[in-house]
Predict the structure.
Amino acid sequence: MPEKRVGLTARQQKILEELNDCPDEMSGQKLHRNLLASAANMGLTTVYRNLRTLQQKGLVRCRNLPTGETLYSPVNRDHHHLTCVDCGRTMVLKSCPIKNIQLPKAQTRNFELLFHTLEFFGLCKSCHQRQEAIEI
């Protein structure tokens, strides 16, 4: 049985459980479809509103793709990505290169850090080769 978090509504708890059960990130639309399939009757607007609340509580992170799509995952998964700006292909980095970075105390004194994101954008090998072939 999943751990119940204090201070979360039943809907927020269900959304968090669904994200934790997914091995990858999930769009709001996919999350909505999964919740409907599991008999959790929740409208799409309600899903997005609760995702925003979970993000503000430091439990969910979101990642915006170059296509405009937003993907969500629990913050306990410290995944960072390389994303191709051409085809949209995403590769997960094996470790967080900034996990142990120390932020300046003077700048963070009045700030509670909940999570961080790190993303690199560029061209995957296929897209780079295709673009070079077009330029020739």
